[in-house]
Design goal:
Length: 479
């Protein structure tokens, strides 16, 4: 073997192509590189995969109605009924039958039995006919421009993942006066997912709800980039990253839907423990680090090359829902959000406020760690510096909060967690630093603590009540 052959054999490019060939086979790789792939003659632009267990008929009905109002109707809908009961199946079929007549033939129910939460996605991609495939949960909502935004993007970016923007919002499921289940929004829109796709940040945290993405079906069929059915959480992040590193991502900076965050119903955050989330996260990171990657031309690569360490700093990733609000005498309002920068070292986050001077005299600060409940904040430490350079520190157990104190933690089990710092005197602050560790579940002993405190309160009230009655009798006898 010649020296030049050895050089080619050991090159990163050769090793990268060989890893792809091992995954999908030489024939499929050559077909992909040569564009040798044919769709069916009547293939729609987009296949919409929607997982459901038939447990949320109101939400399913709303999202299907939002699809009925699309400005671009070049799509099909595959409702993947996962382990449907007889009642669940009947509910889904009834909702489909009540759609407008022009939706006839566009929506199909595909029953899936067994497997994990990832299995319906695998079956959905296998059943899809579209050039692109998007995953739309049965409890989210899309605007009329959702399909159109993807379709416009495909024109000059065929083969790439298509990405549009979306907002998130808190929702509740309530019962109205007639005993009907009604879905209501309980917060304004938040632009947490209105940002360009950043490959470097995506290595640490997923910033893309599934319905904000459309995947090229050719990558699934020819390159065997399939879902990892061993994952019980974060399967969408794993699938996205393996596709993004090969296909690339194109952005359309248009808001196309609402990522609904439910604050009083079952969701993936409540169904899986923090340990399970961390285990899956570590597993995916190890997979991503085990292979060579391609870096696309763009801002992500520029950030990487300009960093002093020569690699991306995962600690600079923003926690999207963490916020600090200011009360300058007019109360807390949405216009008083402070600008935050984030850093993380050894899982300890530091959130720094950079624009306090513009608020003038500040009376109170409000720290909201996350929009929903079921979160534990540990080691919360707050320090502020006024414009004269004087520093003040606030202990976590001296704050007003709607959470429950437990040793060095504040446990938030209800929606809209808050910590309020009351300044002794109105002050002109220059900056603020908040240090904390955040865990997206409740401690194992949480309910024991809650029950214990409830019993103590109840016992104390009973004792005080008896003491008051005894005092009243003594007072009456004296008279």
């Amino acid at each position: 073997m010649s020296e030049s052959a050895n050089i080619a054999k050991n090159s990163t490019l050769t090793q990268y192509l060989k890893s792809l060939e091992a995954t999908c086979g030489r024939e499929n790789l050559l077909k992909y590189l040569g564009g040798d792939y044919k769709y069916s003659e009547n293939a729609p632009f987009l296949s919409v995969i929607m997982r459901t267990q038939g447990k949320r008929p109101e939400a399913l009905s709303e999202v299907l109605l939002s699809l009925s109002g699309q400005s671009d109707m070049d799509f099909e809908v595959l409702i993947m009924g996962h382990n449907l009961t007889a009642d669940g199946k009947q509910s889904v079929e009834t909702i489909i039958s009540e759609l407008p007549s022009f939706m006839d033939g566009k929506v199909h129910l595909v029953e899936v039995t067994g497997g994990s939460r990832t299995t319906p996605l695998t079956k959905g991609f296998e059943s899809a006919n579209g050039r692109y495939v998007s995953i739309l949960d049965d409890d989210d909502m899309v605007f009329e421009n959702w399909v159109e935004a993807f379709h416009e993007l495909e024109e000059n970016n065929s083969g790439k993942i298509l990405h549009s923007y979306c907002v998130d919002q808190d929702w509740r499921s309530i019962e109205n006066e007639y005993g009907e289940t009604v879905l209501v929004s309980v917060s304004p829109f938040r632009p947490n997912y209105c940002c360009e796709f950043d490959l470097i940040k995506q290595f640490s945290t997923n910033y893309c709800p599934t319905f904000s993405l459309a995947f090229p079906r050719i990558a699934y069929d020819l390159l065997n980039i399939h879902f990892d059915e061993t994952l019980t959480t974060t399967e969408d992040w794993d699938f996205l990253m393996r596709n993004a590193l090969i296909c690339g991502v194109a952005d359309n900076p248009i808001v196309t839907g609402i990522y609904r965050k439910w604050i009083n119903t079952e969701n993936s955050a409540t169904l899986h423990t923090e340990r399970e989330w961390k285990k899956n996260y570590k597993y995916i990171r190890n997979k991503l680090l085990s292979n060579s990657v391609l870096l696309p031309i763009g801002d992500s690569t520029k950030k990487l090359l300009s960093s002093q360490s020569g690699s991306a700093n995962a600690g600079e990733v923003k926690i999207t829902e963490f916020s600090v609000l200011i009360d300058d005498g007019a109360g807390f309002n949405e216009d008083s959000f402070a600008k935050l920068t984030f850093k993380c070292e050894d899982e300890i986050w530091t959130a720094e406020v950079t624009n306090l001077a513009k608020f003038g005299e500040i009376r109170r600060l409000r720290i909201d760690p996350i929009a929903n409940g079921s979160v534990t904040v540990k080691g919360l430490a707050i320090s502020a510096t006024d414009i004269d350079g004087n520093k003040v520190r606030y202990r976590h157990d001296k704050l007003r909060t709607n959470g429950l104190y437990s040793k060095d933690s504040i446990i938030f089990s209800t929606p809209d967690p808050q910590c309020i710092v009351n300044l002794q005197d109105p002050a002109k602050l220059a900056n603020l630093a908040v240090n904390f560790t955040i865990h997206y579940d409740l401690p194992i002993n949480f309910f024991r603590i809650t029950v214990f405190r409830f019993c103590i309160k109840k016992w104390t009230r009973a004792v005080l009540s008896r003491a008051r009655r005894a005092a009243s009798k003594i007072k009456h006898l004296i008279r």
